[in-house]
């Protein structure tokens, strides 16, 4: 499998499932999700600046981040709670775009090592209604996610080159 | 509608939806969900003792409670995180039975006043897979919930009688 985002959202389901491989070990991939200073630098879509208001990536910790275009403009705020954080393995968290109040999704992110120092991220978004899922998909969620993971790969490659 | 639990779980869906009315205002119904000392006394099924390890019912708060039969025996532990708590109106939280690790559900509880000092609870459980939902339903979840709400009604009636 190439390092591309593979996303599936079967008709009539509340789920969005996705898989993405990376040329780094699972520990580095996990760290890029758990460390707010790293997370801020890759989370998509491209071209947005991300400010972290809170990011306490442990069981029961909360997060909130705000995105805006580099030319200013509208802000987009997101918040949630970490239910489970198991280092290098699993994050289960809630996720809400504050512009759609009370539309909360449950997000699973599983991290696993692959041979050759590579890793796989397997994600599942569980939406609270069919309408919520369709609305998310219609925002261009898939391309925003793909851009974010490409930025993550670039960030980790740049860090490796500086070692 | 009578004060009975009405639960729907359509085939092939990840949702369990339910409605239950109560002979008390929404503020009292909410308090019975938000106050650990009250919650402990009604949460079903009947015949179990509930111990609260944590119950911080506010945005970003966590909870954990443990149930066991009055004759001792096995313990059943549950934990989660409160994503949104809006007084007398809405709770959105995660929920996990620790015996089924990483099977996390998202729970919506909406509280609203009805005429005549009554109220309605409207709940939605969002399950992370079809298997998870079927497993929960197969435990007798519906009768356990119904027993809990009956106990809640008895508890609130007893409190009202002592005023």
Question: Can you give a write-up of this model?
Answer:
Chains A, B: InterPro entries: ASHA1/2-like_C, START-like_dom_sf. Chains A, B: Pfam families: AHSA1. Chains A, B: Belongs to the AHA1 family. The structure is a homodimer of 163-residue chains. Chain A is 28% helix and 43% strand. Chain A has an 8-stranded antiparallel beta sheet. By secondary structure, chain A is α+β, with helices and mostly antiparallel strands. In chain A, helix 1 (26-34) packs across helix 2 and helix 2 packs across helix 4. The two termini of chain A are 27 Å apart. Chain A has 4 helices and 8 strands. The interface between A and B is medium-sized, with 25 and 25 residues.
Estimate percent helicity of chain A.
Answer: 25-40%
Oligomer: homodimer
Biggest sheet architecture of chain A: 8 strands, antiparallel
Shape of chain A: globular
CATH class of chain A, named Alpha Beta
Low-confidence stretches of chain A: none
Order of strands, widest sheet of chain A: 1-2-8-7-6-5-4-3
InterPro entries (chains A, B): ASHA1/2-like_C (IPR013538), START-like_dom_sf (IPR023393)
Domain Activator of Hsp90 ATPase homologue 1/2-like C-terminal (chains A, B): 23-156
Family (chains A, B): Belongs to the AHA1 family.
Protein name (chains A, B): ATPase
